[in-house]
Input
Amino acid sequence: MRKGKKKLLTIGTSLFLTASLFAGCSGNAKTGETTSNTSTEAPTVKEEAVKEETVKEATGIDTSKKVELQFYMLGDAPKDLKLIQDEVNKMALEDLNATVKFNFTTWTDWDQKYKLLLSSGQPIDLIFTAEWTNYQSYAMKGAFLPLDDLIPKAAPKLQAYVPQDFWEAVKVDKKIYTVPAIWKEYVNDGIAYREDLRKKYNLPKPESLETLEQYLDGIRKNEPDMLPLADTEVSHVDSIRQMTTKTVNTNDKVPYGLSIMYDTPRDVTSYWGSPQHLEDLKMFRSWQEKGYFMKNMLNIKDSGSDIFAAGKAAAILGSENPNRFGDAVVKVKSLHPDWELGYSPYPNMKGFSSPVHPIHNGFAVPRSSKNPERALAFYEKMVTDKRYNWLTQYGIEGKNFEIEDGKYYKMLGDAQSNGFTREGMNGWAWRNPEFMLFDKSYQAVLDMFDEMDKIAKPNIFQGFGEDWTSYQAEKAALLQVEKQYLYPLNDGMVKDVEAGLKLFMEKAKKAGLDKIQAEYTKQWIKYLDDNNIK
Amino acid sequence: MFKKKGFLYELNKNRIMFLMIAPTLLFFLINSYAPMVGIYYAFTSYDFAGGLFGSPFVGLDNFKFLTQSGILLKLTINTLGYNVVFIILGNVISIGAAILLSEVRGKLFKKLSQSIMFLPYFVSFVLISVLAFNMFNADSGFVNQLLKSLGFDPVDIYNTPWLWPFLITAFYIWKNLGYSMVIYLASIMGISDEYYEAAKIDGANIFQRIWYITIPMLKSTFIILLLFALGSIMKGQFDLFYQLVGNNGVLFNVTDIVDTYVYRSLKVNFDIGMATAAGLYQSIFGFVMIMTVNYIIKKINDDYALF
Amino acid sequence: MDDNILSSRVFRMMAYLIITIFSLLCLFPFLLIISGSLTANESIIRDGFHLIPKVFSLEGYEMVFIFPAQLIKAYSVTIFVTVVGTLVGLFLITMAGYVLQRKDFKYRNPLSFFIYFTTLFGGGLVPWYIMLTTYFGLADTYAVLILPGLMTPFLIILMKNFIKSAIPEELFESAKIDGANDFRIYYSIVLKLAMPGIATVGLFLALTYWNDWFMSSLFINDVSMYQLQYYLYNTINTMMFVSQMATGTGVTLGRDIPTESTKMAMAIVVTGPIIFLYPFVQRYFVKGLTIGAVKG
Output
C-alpha cells in the first residue's frame, strides 16, 4: 500500500515536470494566440507596443509602462502556484502590460502579518478583505484606497458586474474600499448529530431546545461511554441563542452581551444580566451536572469537530455550517460507513436565514499601492474573464481538473499529487457564479443553500462596522473579564450560578460595560439610519 | 603616563580590541537601537495614512487598558511572584543537578542522563499542554484514574486554582532544567583542578569541597543569570502560561501575568499603540529593577557587576 | 582517595538516585510523544495517550512526509542556517566576550551596558520589520534567516563570564609582555582554554537557529526557503485555523488531517537530528572532569 503511494507520488512529480514543459503551448492555445510569446524577446516587445493602443482604449487607463502587481491572499500557497502565475502572466502581460506576483501569508500568525503588511508601507496592490479580517476597522483607519472614482475608470466591466446594492453595502463612511464577491453562500451553523444513534434508541430529532435535551438525555442513558456534546470552550452559547431567539446575527454573537432581534433591530437591550441569561446559565450548569459536556472543556486542545468526527461525542452545536457539514459527511462515509449524520440548521429554528453580507469576501487596494488602476483592471480580469478565473480557481484543465458530466468539477489525482486543488488559491473573493464549477459531492450543500434561499432575509448585521476607538481600553478590559468570570459560568463550572452571574456583572460594569454598550448602541442605530433599515 | 587620556588615545591604544568588538556594536545599533523609534507608537493612536509620526498623539491613553479595571496591580504581583520563584528555585535546582552530575563517576550514565534531561527543552508548550490535559483532565485523566484506583476521591484539577502555581512552577523547572544546568556544568568545568588538588591535600571531604570551592566559583555565573532574569521580570514565559491555562477563567486569578493579559485583551483588536504601551511598562519596570540591583552588586563587589 | 570515605560514597549514591529520578521524569513525556506519533489520530482523541499505542498507525508521519521533497529542502535550509549562523555568531560573540572582560579595555562597562540595554527596551515588531524589509530589502533571502539571530546580549555576557573564569588575568599580561597582539591572544589562548564555555554558547546558539520559525514566518514567502520548524509548524496552524476560525468563514480544508498524531510526529522529526549534536558538545563537559576525578 505505502509503496504504491510513494510510486504514485513519483509519477505525479514527473508528470508535473512534463506538464510544466508543455504548459507554455497549452496556454497559448487557450488564448487563441500564435507562438509570438515564446519566441525571442525583441518581437514580443515590439508587439506589445502595438497592442498598447488597443489596450488603452479598452480600459481607459494608461498601460504604457510595464508593471508587476503584488497580490496578497491569506492562507497557504498551492504547490503549483508558480505554474499558474506564469500562465496568468502571459495573458496579463498581453492584456494589461502587467505581471502579477501572487503572495500568500500562510495561516501562521496571519492576523499579525496582515497588520504588518498594511502598516509597513511596502507596495501591495491587492489584498483580501473580510469582516473577520476587520475590513471596516482598517478602512476607517485609512489602510485602503477609496475605489469610488477608480473603478469606473479602471474596471468598468467589474463595476457593472457587481450589483449596485453590493457596492452600497460595502461602503465605510460612504466610500467603497473593497470589491465584494457576489456569490451567495450561507455560513450559519446547525446541530450536527448522529442520526444512526438517534434511530437506534428511538430519540426525537434535535430540532429545538426541547428535543435537543431529549436527544442528549437519551444518549447519556444509552451510551454511557459517549459524550453527548462535543463542544469545547464556549461555542455552544452562541448556538443556544441561535436556537431560541430570532437574533439579528447569523454566526458568532452580538458583542458585549447585547441582544438585538432581527424584527426589531432598534430595540437594543442587554442580554447579560437579564433573567433569560440567568436561566440559560442555569441550564448549562444542569447540563454539566448531567454530564452532557466534558468537564474541562475550557482546556481541551482537540477541536469540537475532531471530537465529533472521532466518534467520541454524539452531537455538536457550535461549528458546523453547511460547507463543513458537507465535508464531514463525505469524510464519515469513507471512514465509518456504518454511521449516519443528521443536521438541523438553526435558520429552520429561527424561521429565517441570512446569506453572508457582501463584505464577507472582497479585495481592496492598499494605500501603499503603486498601481491602483492596473490592479483593479487586473482584478476585473480575474473575476470576469473566464480564462483568468478558471486558472486561478481550478488550475489547468486537463492537468489539475476536468469537467465531468458536462458541469461538475473533477479533481485529477489526489490532494497530494495534484498541485492545485479546487479553489487552491483560496479564491473565495473572485468566485463568479457564472463560471463556478462544483464537485459532485457538493450538490448536497447546494441543496441546503436552496432550502435556505426559500426563507432568506437580507443580512443586516454583518455590514455594520464598529468603531471602537473611543472605548478601546474598556473593550480590552471587558474581554478579560468575560473570559475570567463568564466562561466558567457558560460551561457550568460554577456551583452558585446566581452569585456567579452577579459577580461577573459587577466586574464587567467596573471594566466599563455600560459605556461600551451605550457607544455600540449609538453607532448601531446610526448604521440603521444610514442604511434605511427599519 | 598615569594621566587619564581621552577617547582617541584609548582608541589608538586598543585599536585591535575596538576592531574586534565593532561588528557586535554595529549589530546592536542596527538590529536593536534603530527600531527603538517604535517606542513612540505607545503614545499615538495609529492610523495608516499617518504612519509612525503622522498619527495623532494621545498621551497616555494607550496605557489605560492596563489600569482600566484595576487589574494591573494583580498582574504585576503575579508576574513578579512567579518570576521570583522561578529564579530562586530554578537556579537552586539546576546548580544542585549540575553539582551532582559533576560528582557522578559513570561516564555513560553521565552522558545519557544529561542528554535525557535536555529532552524537555525540545518539547513545545503546545505539546506539553496536550500531554498535561491528558494527565489532569477530570473525565479520563491519568492522575484521576490513579487516585481512583488508590481509593481517593478524584480531583478536578482544572477547577482547583490553588494547585496551579505549583504545577506551573514544576513545568517551568522541568522544561528548563537541562538548559540552565548546562551553563553551570560548563562553569564547573572551567574551575581549575589546582583548587581541588589543594583542598585534597588539606584533607577536605566532598561536602567541604563543594561548599568551599564549587559553589563560590559559580557565583559569577549565578549573578549573570540573575541579572538577565531581573531585567525581564515583568515579561516572560508567555507560552508556559498561555498554553497550559488557555481561556480557563477559573484559574486566571492565580495564573494571569502581564503577557497573557495583553495577549488576550488585544487578540481581537490588535492595536500597535496599546501593545507597545504594555511593552514599555514591562521595560521600565525591568530597567528600574536592574539598575538598582546592579548598583548594589557594584557596591559589594565590582567584579560581579554586569556593567 | 576520598572515595573510600563513607560520606562520599553515600553522596554519590544519592547523586545517582536523584539524577535517575530526574531523568525518568524527563523521559516519560517523551515516550508518550513517541507513542502518540505512532497512534491513529482517532484513537488519541478517543482514548488519550498511552505508552503503548492503542491503535497503531503511521498516519502522523505520512502527513509530515506528505511532500518529501519540501521536507528535505526545509531540513537543508535549517541545517545551512544553523551551521553558518552558529559559526559566524560564535566568532563574533567570543571576540566581543573576550574584549569585554579585558581589564585594560577602558570602555568595557559602558559597552556592556550598551549591549545589555537592548534586552530591556525594544521598539516592537513593526519598525523592525519595516527596517529589514523596506530599508535592507532582506525579505526572501537567506540573510534574513541568519543575520538577526547572530548574537544575543545574554550569550555575549555569558561568554565574557566563561572567559573570565577560565583564564587567569596573569596569562593575558604575560602574553602581552611576550609581544602578542590582542587578536593573537584571543586566537591562541582564549579559543583554546575557554572551550567548555564556547561549546555551551555554541550549543545554545545552534539550538536557537534550529528551533527558529519566526523568521521564516515573517520574511519568507517562498516555500522552498522555509526553515524546518516553520514548514511543520505551519501545517499545525493551518489545521488550527480551519478548526477555530473557519466556522464563520465557510472555509474547509478539503482533506482529512490527523491533527494530534501529526503534531507528535513533527516533534519527533524536529528533535531527532539535533539530539545527535549534543554528545559532540558533551565531550567538553565530561572530559575536564574525568581528569579532575582521576587526580582527585
